[in-house]
Amino acid sequence: MGEQQNLQVVQAAFEKLGAMDMDGFKDMLAEDVEWETPGPRDVLPFAGTHHGREAVVAWFEKMNEVEEVQKFEPRDFLAKDDKVVVLGESRVKVRATERVIDDHWFHVYTVRDGHITHFREAYDTAAEVAAHRARPGN
């Protein structure tokens, strides 16, 4: 597939997520997809490397269990070879502490044969860890 098709795959994946169509999103992932999120697992239970479609769905479930996404906006989509980079911003509230985090992030997707095979993200993990460790109401 070419860069434009890879870009369309990632954009379609964002549309599926935005519509809360997890079955449709899961179908866009390769069976052996690798999903990487930075951070200490003892504070961020969704951090780490996750393998396979079901593990990615579980990643979303765990993240939504501990954080409420208030805003998630991809801004730019850039494609080069089999990679698609997405730049965006978000606002999440940590459920346990009620702390709100405004952040800029980037995602790097690898796309092969019309499926996402790898995901890696970067964002302000220090701010997220601090929000998770804060005392409720402070």
Quick structural gist:
By secondary structure, the protein is an alpha+beta fold.
Notes on the structure:
The chain is of the alpha+beta class. It has one domain: Nuclear Transport Factor 2, Chain: A, CATH 3.10.450.50. Helices cover 33% and strands 43% of the residues. The chain has four helices and six strands, in the order ααββαββββα. The chain has a six-stranded mixed beta sheet. A hairpin with a 5-residue loop joins strand 4 (83-94) and strand 5 (100-112). The longest helix has 16 residues, at 3-18. It is globular.
Helix content: 25-40%
User: Do you know the CATH topology?
Assistant: Nuclear Transport Factor 2, Chain: A
User: What is the CATH domain class?
Assistant: Alpha Beta
The helix-and-strand class reads alpha+beta
What percentage of the residues does DSSP assign to strands (E)?
A: 35-45%
Within the largest sheet, what's the order of strands? 2-1-6-5-4-3
